[in-house]
Amino acid sequence: MDVTEISKKIYEFVEKRVSELGSELTPELMFMHLSEEIGEIARQLVNKNLSMRKYREDNLKEEIAQAILDLFVLSEIFEIDLPKEINKKIDDMATRRQQ
Predict the structure, then answer these.
(1) pLDDT tens across the length of the chain (99 residues)
(2) pTM of the predicted model, to two decimals?
(3) Domain 3-98 listed as CATH 1.10.10.60
(4) Domain locations along the chain
């Protein structure tokens, strides 16, 4: 599955789920969810580096995947052509590195 297919598939799933819960899929809702997932990633990294709690690699993987999926949903909400924007960003980064 390519990026565009993944993006559309997760958007449709999340839109249906949010609707079933009686809510509306908005950028603000997705940003709040993304922020929560980023916090979960941070917690696992802190756990790994400071041994404060038990580090769980499987949980870190899940949280990273969820954060990426949340970004896909945001890209669909804003009708962003992800392959185009990703390639543009990679080209920009490569150009800056050469300077």
Answers:
(1) 899 999 999 999 999 999 999 999 999 999 999 999 999 999 999 988 887 678 889 999 999 999 999 999 999 999 999 999 999 999 999 988 777
(2) 0.87
(3) no
(4) 3-98
